[in-house]
Automatic annotation (TrEMBL):
This is WHG domain-containing protein. The lineage of its organism: Bacteria, Pseudomonadati, Pseudomonadota, Alphaproteobacteria, Hyphomicrobiales. Residues 10-70 form the HTH tetR-type domain. PANTHER family: HTH-TYPE TRANSCRIPTIONAL REGULATOR BETI, HTH-TYPE TRANSCRIPTIONAL REGULATOR RUTR. It comes from Rhizobium bangladeshense. Residues 33-52 bind DNA. Keywords: DNA-binding, Transcription, Transcription regulation.
Length: 204
């Protein structure tokens, strides 16, 4: 009997996550409403709160699924290249493509600020670390003598540079780049950073 109840709970959880994911993908995080989600999932409004503490916790699970999809995309793109510079270039282009193709889900990763009463769980914070790890690996080949802690900081810097350009451009900020130039400029940015790292490694 307990097993059956757990099955139903897990089924409801999956339906709520999928309903919330589809709503965010279509309408954006700012327009997410618990009543709409439960209606789409085919359950009563109270059903959401038998599975999740609140709406913020549900969004965390949607973002977790988005991160897994992003990781699969970046891992695939990185594997297509052999040189560390080309791997970094592929990572940047894969990140940009994912952001363009799944704009609202991608934005939700950075726009979700849970209330103090429902802080982001550590397991979800840990899920973000893959972004730094996949960048740090080719950086280690470009600058093998760099201490791991410095490499971790450099990976964050490189991610911040690419993310910043992508973000302000997709949000249509006045300093952003037109979409038709964005991929090219991101590629030039990564190549410039990688070339600098290569020169430092060679002691030039």
């Amino acid at each position: 009997m307990a097993g059956r109840r757990e099955e139903k709970r897990e089924d409801l959880k999956a339906r709520l996550i999928e309903a919330a994911r589809e709503r965010i993908a279509r309408d954006g995080l700012a327009n997410l409403r618990a009543r709409d989600i439960t209606q789409d999932a085919g359950c009563a409004l109270g059903g959401l709160y038998t599975v999740f503490t609140d709406l913020a916790e549900l969004v965390v699970h949607v973002n977790s699924a988005t991160l897994k999809a992003l990781e699969a995309r970046l891992t695939l793109d990185e594997a297509k290249a052999k040189s560390p510079t080309d791997r970094l270039r592929n990572l940047a282009q894969g990140y940009l493509a994912f952001a363009v193709e799944h704009r609202n889900l991608w934005k939700a990763l950075f726009d979700h600020f849970p209330p103090a009463t429902s802080p982001t769980p550590q397991w979800h914070l840990d899920e973000h670390l893959f972004l730094m790890d996949v960048i740090a690996e080719p950086l280690a080949e470009l600058q093998p003598d760099m201490p791991p802690e410095d490499r971790a900081i450099r990976a964050r810097t490189l991610f911040g540079a690419v993310h910043g350009v992508v973000s302000i451009s997709l949000e249509g900020r006045f300093v952003g780049l037109p979409l038709e130039r964005l991929a090219r400029e991101v590629d030039e940015l990564v190549q410039t950073i990688a070339a600098g790292a290569e020169l430092r490694r060679q002691g030039m």
